[in-house]
């Protein structure tokens, strides 16, 4: 079906093109004869709405399909299956379905500008492109944006490793943080920029910034734009990519990053100290090995008594939920249309799927449309192969309330009476109206755990990753006071208590990250 679509070039030139996607949308929409030859449903219907609805559905899938698959080493899935069969006959095993040779193992120095890449998303100028990225409430559909962030980070990693061609994979995501709320995407043109800030022996940290322009997109986009247009930043992200040799299955040494300015050196040192601190925390603060602090132990006891009190009520308030009651599950078979250049499922697609499940969990819990705040520390534990079954389990693992100075909402008094006021929020009410947490409300953290198994094996599961998303739901929506009000989740089992403690720690880490962005001038309007 998709071979009849116009070719959408998404190599390095796509990252420099503002209108490639939208142009394809217009071409596909206007090519009715080609559309009819590619689809076979409701052909005899007298209602033009049938064709219009079908066009929209097929178009969305087609654009998404084309965006993900265009690359220099692209092979069709049929060609990949044939190549796999040949390798099996020859007794060869490779982690990648497209890469046979890393080309070179030589290491050199690369600057930030060597890896710099960008994507333009002109939502203000192009209504067709905007329609592909809009969600039900009319705001930005972050799941689709996450795919672009990961794809851009992959492009940056590839450019930094040149002339070598190792297998680059998303190892982890330190943070994706919304620095400024964007309520109406029709008023902005977006530019996503990415570059390497730090390198280890075989890993690289990639910084992604999203800039929102109320006017035209700048004609000249370089690394300097991150500093000159810092006040336009609406999202900040840090990815860690790892390079592997697909034949030897070992880590592949990559080019070193060479900072050339004072700002680049500051970013390098910050990343270096952050990585060292993260390794130290993993040893000293791992709740699987180290017990909670004294304060956290007292908080666990408060949660325990609150849970007992809630269970004894004949009718529990609707804004109070046990953690076990917030769980949502989803099961999918992974299809080849969402593979990356190595023949495994694209990391950005997993972000999109887990995010949308987390969004559902947060919305069902709070009884309102949540606003995305951040993706907290996330690790990809195992690759997700095409054809496997992916199991996703989401649960609300932490909540905190952001109050006014003089709080008079009935929902607040109700929760304080039931929960003994154990709330120790990491976030305070911001005085900047352009920030998400500038009004009273509830910060909701949702953890999505994923695991995979083969269709032919119903017993053995592999943990593939954990994704933690934070959302914010204002206390008052649509101008109605205390509706939906504040919401609280209550853990009951000890395992749930530990999840809650970890969630609180993450909330404080994210608040500290936001403070650092403010010091850098990236959260000023």
From TrEMBL:
<feature type="domain" description="HotDog ACOT-type">
    <location>
        <begin position="324"/>
        <end position="451"/>
    </location>
</feature>
<keyword id="KW-0677">Repeat</keyword>
<comment type="similarity">
    <text>Belongs to the acyl coenzyme A hydrolase family.</text>
</comment>
<keyword id="KW-0809">Transit peptide</keyword>
<dbReference type="GO" id="GO:0006637">
    <property type="term" value="P:acyl-CoA metabolic process"/>
</dbReference>
<feature type="domain" description="HotDog ACOT-type">
    <location>
        <begin position="119"/>
        <end position="247"/>
    </location>
</feature>
<dbReference type="InterPro" id="IPR029069">
    <property type="entry name" value="HotDog_dom_sf"/>
</dbReference>
<dbReference type="GO" id="GO:0005739">
    <property type="term" value="C:mitochondrion"/>
</dbReference>
<keyword id="KW-0378">Hydrolase</keyword>
<protein>
    <recommendedName>
        <fullName>HotDog ACOT-type domain-containing protein</fullName>
    </recommendedName>
</protein>
<dbReference type="GO" id="GO:0047617">
    <property type="term" value="F:fatty acyl-CoA hydrolase activity"/>
</dbReference>
<dbReference type="InterPro" id="IPR033120">
    <property type="entry name" value="HOTDOG_ACOT"/>
</dbReference>
């Amino acid at each position: 079906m998709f071979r009849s679509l116009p070719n959408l070039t998404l190599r390095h030139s796509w990252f420099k093109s503002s209108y490639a996607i939208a142009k394809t949308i217009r071409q596909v929409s206007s090519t009715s004869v080609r559309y009819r030859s590619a689809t076979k449903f409701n052909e005899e219907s007298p209602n033009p709405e049938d064709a219009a609805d079908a066009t929209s559905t097929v178009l969305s899938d087609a654009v998404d399909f084309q965006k993900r698959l265009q690359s220099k080493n692209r092979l069709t899935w049929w060609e990949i299956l044939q190549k796999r069969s040949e390798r099996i006959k020859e007794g060869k095993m490779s982690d990648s379905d497209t890469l046979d040779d890393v080309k070179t193992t030589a290491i050199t120095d690369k600057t930030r500008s060597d890896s710099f890449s960008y994507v333009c998303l002109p939502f203000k100028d192009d209504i067709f492109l905007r329609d592909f990225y809009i969600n039900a409430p009319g705001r930005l559909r972050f799941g689709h944006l996450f795919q672009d962030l990961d794809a851009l980070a992959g492009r940056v990693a590839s450019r930094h490793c040149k002339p070598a061609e190792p297998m680059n994979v998303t190892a982890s995501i330190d943070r994706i943080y919304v620095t400024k709320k964007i309520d109406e995407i029709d008023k902005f043109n977006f530019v996503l920029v990415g570059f390497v800030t730090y390198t280890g022996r075989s890993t690289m940290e990639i910084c992604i910034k999203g800039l929102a322009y109320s006017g035209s997109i700048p004609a000249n986009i370089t690394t300097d734009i991150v500093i000159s247009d810092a006040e336009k930043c609406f999202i900040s992200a840090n990815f860690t990519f790892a390079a592997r040799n697909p034949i030897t299955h070992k880590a592949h040494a990559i080019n070193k990053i060479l900072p050339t300015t004072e700002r680049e050196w500051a970013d390098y040192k910050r990343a270096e100290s952050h990585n060292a601190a993260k390794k130290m925390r993993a040893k000293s603060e791992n709740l699987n090995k180290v017990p909670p602090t004294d304060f956290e132990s007292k908080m666990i006891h408060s949660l325990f008594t609150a849970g007992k009190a809630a269970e004894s009520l004949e009718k529990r308030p609707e804004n109070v939920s046990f953690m076990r009651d917030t769980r949502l599950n989803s099961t999918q078979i992974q299809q080849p249309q969402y593979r990356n250049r190595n023949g495994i499922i694209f990391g950005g697609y997993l972000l999109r799927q887990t995010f949308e499940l987390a969004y559902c969990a947060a919305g069902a819990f709070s009884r309102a449309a949540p606003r995305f705040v951040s993706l907290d520390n996330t690790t990809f534990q195992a690759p997700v192969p095409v054809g496997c079954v992916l199991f996703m389990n989401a649960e609300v693992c932490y909540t905190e309330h952001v109050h006014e100075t003089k709080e008079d909402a009935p929902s607040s008094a109700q929760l304080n009476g039931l929960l003994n006021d154990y709330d120790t929020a990491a976030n305070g009410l911001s005085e900047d109206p352009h920030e998400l947490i500038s009004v009273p409300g509830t910060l909701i953290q949702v953890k999505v755990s994923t695991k995979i198994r083969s269709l032919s094996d119903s017993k053995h599961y592999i943990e593939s990753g954990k994704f933690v998303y934070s959302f914010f739901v204002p206390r008052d929506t649509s101008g109605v006071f205390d509706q939906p009000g504040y919401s609280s989740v209550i853990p009951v089992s000890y395992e749930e208590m530990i999840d809650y403690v970890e969630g609180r720690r993450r909330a404080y880490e994210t608040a500290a990250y936001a403070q650092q962005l403010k010091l850098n001038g990236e959260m000023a309007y």
